[in-house]
Design brief:
10 strands, 257 residues, 6-stranded mixed beta sheet, binds magnesium ion, binds adenosine-5'-triphosphate, Rossmann fold
Length: 257
């Protein structure tokens, strides 16, 4: 059985079909990339899967359960965790605190009680902190733990977002252009982090424009263009797919990896 199943998912904004009858499955343990030119509907697809808005028609099943139209909170509670195309950190909080906040889908009190710190939660809080430190080590940010999040260079803020998402213990992690704005060295570090997340057993869906990153780490690729799925296959199949080449040649982007 698929871990995630998207069936005939359509999202209409007024007259615009942002997602047009998209169907695909993701198996547990897979690393799937979703690619496509700007405006193809990739982020919309993530927004629908993660419950930010319901699809106009179609369905989303996660772990065998119908989550179509479920709230973002309920979707996250079931283990489906996302990051955002634009960095969304709590800028004034420290790097460590930002990761701690990510864990509060798995602790009892939620974000607010975590911030108020009632004594009854102290032990749980210590565990949360220890896990957060481990995750900072995992992404290579342990030395910056006590710095304000917005003092990190942009590339490191993106890694911090990934650490925060991991704190929620995802079964399925959705990454929306995590390498956007990163230099080559930062992209290589991020690729290594994603590889290790996947090797640890987490299923990953990656939206990404950096084709060399996609071709290196994705096992399978879904290609969107003007809201429709135009191709699905292995990196080699996608590179040679005539519709994919046409979609990219028609725009300013290329598949050069
Ligand atoms: N909330 C919204 N309301 C109205 N239109 C929207 C909304 N979100 C997205 N769109 C439109 O839907 C289309 C798909 O947008 P989307 O953000 O999903 O594309 P994308 O593939 O993520 O593009 P990019 O690579 O630039 O991030 C675009 O034409 C966009 O303007
Ligand atoms: Mg997008």
């Amino acid at each position: 059985m698929a871990l995630l199943s998207v069936q005939n998912e359509t999202k209409r904004f007024g007259g615009l079909l942002a997602n047009d009858a998209i169907s695909f499955d993701v198996k547990e343990g897979e690393l799937l990339a979703v690619i496509g030119p700007n405006g193809a509907g990739k982020t919309t697809l993530f927004n629908v899967i993660s419950g930010f808005f319901p699809p106009t028609t179609g369905s989303i099943h996660f772990d065998g359960r119908d989550i179509t139209g479920a709230s973002p909170h309920r979707v996250a509670s079931s283990g489906l965790i996302r990051t955002y195309q634009l960095v969304q950190l709590f800028k004034q909080l420290t790097v460590l605190e930002n990761v701690e906040i990510g864990s509060h889908r798995v602790t009892e009190g939620g974000v607010f009680s975590a911030l108020l710190r009632p004594p009854s939660m102290r032990r749980q809080e210590e565990e949360v902190r220890a896990t957060a430190r481990e995750l900072l080590r995992f992404v290579g940010l342990e030395k910056q733990a006590d710095m304000p999040a917005d003092s990190l260079p942009y590339g490191r803020q993106r890694l911090l977002e990934v650490a925060r998402a991991l704190a929620a213990k995802p079964r399925l992690l959705l990454l929306d252009e995590p390498a956007a704005g990163l230099n080559m060295q930062e992209t290589a570090a991020l690729a290594e982090v994603i590889r290790r997340i996947h090797a640890g057993g987490t299923t990953v869906i990656l939206i990404e424009h950096d084709m060399s990153l996609v071709m290196q780490i994705a096992q399978r690729i879904v290609v969107l263009d003007f809201g429709r799925k135009i191709a699905e296959g292995t990196p080699d199949e996608i590179k040679a797919h005539p519709d994919v080449i046409a979609a990219y040649l028609g725009g300013t982007e290329t598949l050069d990896a």
